[in-house]
Specification:
By secondary structure, the protein is α/β, with parallel strands linked by helices. 23% of the residues lie in helices and 34% in strands. Helix 1 runs antiparallel to helix 3 (84-93).
Length: 128
């Protein structure tokens, strides 16, 4: 078994791909011609986005949609950065919402939290 994908269901796949490029520098690896599914070039494990209409088709609407106006889902994406403060500032400039500015944790790691435009919770952290 190998972990291959994280897929976030969103209102606009294209807007999500653009946000993650502007905020974190991830390039689009694949965008289906329908615009209903797209992937970012994030390394070995794929971060992808699918439209809520695909969620409706796949799950009969029986899933919790991300919503930036409500509390975040109990899942976070973690992006490792060599400069957490600069990455945090870049994410905010791209439209992310601050959840917690960079803080040095007792174990030595620097960690910040933001929410993406579609509502996902994102950790920006230094290497452990």
């Amino acid at each position: 078994m190998k972990f291959g994908y994280t897929i976030i269901y969103v209102s606009s796949v294209l807007e999500s791909l653009d946000f993650y490029k502007q905020a974190f520098g991830f390039e689009t690896r694949f965008l289906h011609e329908s615009g209903q599914y797209g992937e970012l070039d994030t390394g070995e494990t794929t971060l992808a986005f699918a439209s809520h209409s695909l969620g409706e088709m796949n799950f009969g609407g029986n899933y919790q949609k991300t919503d930036p106006t409500k509390a975040p889902l109990g899942v976070e994406l973690a992006f490792v950065s060599d400069n957490v403060a600069a990455s945090y500032d870049k994410a905010l400039a791209a439209g992310a919402v601050s959840m917690s500015p960079p803080v040095k944790k007792p174990w030595g790691q620097v960690v910040a939290y933001v929410r993406a435009k579609e509502g996902s919770l994102i950790e920006i952290c230094s290497k452990l």
